[in-house]
Fold this protein.
Amino acid sequence: MTTSVFDNIDALKKELLRCMKCGNCMAACPIYNIEKKESSVARGKIALGEIALSSEDIKIDDETLVKLLFNCLVCKSCMMACPSQVRFDRIILGLRAAIAKKKGIPFVKKAIFGMLKNPELFDKGMKAFAVMQGLFLKEQQEKRRTPKGFMKTLGKRFDENFVIPELSKESFRDKVSEVITVKYSKCKALFFTGCSVNYLFPEVGEDLIYVLQKNNVSIVTPKRQNCCGMPVMVHGDIDTARELARKNIDVFEQSDCDYIITVCGSCGSALKTEYPIILEGDSNYEEKAKKWAEKTYDISTFLLKVINFEPPKGKLNLKVTYHDSCHLKKSMKVFAEPREIIKKIPGVTLLEMKKPDACCGSGGSYHLTHPETSLKIASSKAEDIKSTTAQAVCTGCPACMMELFESLHRANAQCDVIHTISLLSKSYKEEEKGNV
Ligand code: SF4
Ligand code: SF4
């Protein structure tokens, strides 16, 4: 028996007991700030968990309780405000894992998670979806799509202001060479693309390859890498998350790479902070998970702290603001590095928002399952961005990029959304054109 909260109810109860019910987490919680209900915040959910794990009358699979425990972005903002350092992320995922064990995973989720375990099948599904997207998504400018036909009937979120990036018919990993070796290579890094870059933001992957080549790093982008497992973990499906983690670790072991690089806060935190925990006690994978966690870096940390990158000289003349992805800042502790990189780009002025680390409202699938609350959270983020007068908002997570595209569109803001690596790549390209 492991000491993990995902397998051991006593460990979960022990973590619940660390909450001293002070309520400091209330002001930090984006959901509580809108709903003003005790059940929305960490303290309330911890109390519900305590009752469910000790009472004879209320069970963990009680429908109302399940609904309340899924009303959480897993944004970890409460943890930043907690004087007792309660690991609320472990608690909420542990409670959801207990629900999944008792109740099973709902059929639709099970079918989607099943596809994630089979990368070939998932790839075929995404490409088929890309070919058919015109049936329910209208083409807009700059590879954006908005709902049409029956999609508009699927729920509150899918109105005329809903906007998402076009699904690429050719994935990033189809286009890129699996191994790119550069002359005078400083090191060999594995690029863990994540699903969003592979299918929705291939240009972010292209920018990463370009910047790494500029800085003499050889890159391996394994075709057979899997989903990081974070989307299934937050739904309590720890068994599938473990299977995906083991498959990814097998890919890392075969790669002969010195480092793993991520461009997504969620993927990075899955590899760096979650794999060692979900694989605890696994005699074949525990040590490997720890080893690869230490070698995993967000691209901004990698450029600054591992290879001491050569800053670009190309001038951009741009006012930008920076949005902290919850997983990048609150799990991976990466927030100073992207700002340092932005400040090194000639002609770029960084204007801070009032609350740069406030959640964007995405929360994985939270924006689809809880559209009303999510839209309100997203709207206050968009207003904060607008108030900076920045021409672009920069971030280190494709899931946040998607949410920001939509919230800025809804707020009628003239502000681009760009990944930090793409901003850097633009400056190198200007330098090549002689615009210094
Ligand atoms: S993780 Fe985020 S949404 Fe969930 S309780 Fe904590 S602050 Fe609120
Ligand atoms: S801040 Fe921490 S200790 Fe205080 S109520 Fe919230 S979770 Fe409990």
User: Anything to note?
Assistant: The chain has four domains: 9-103, 108-165, 172-306, 318-432. The chain has a mean pLDDT of 94. The first strand starts at residue 137 and ends at 139. The domain at 172-306 is CATH 3.40.50.1860 (Rossmann fold).
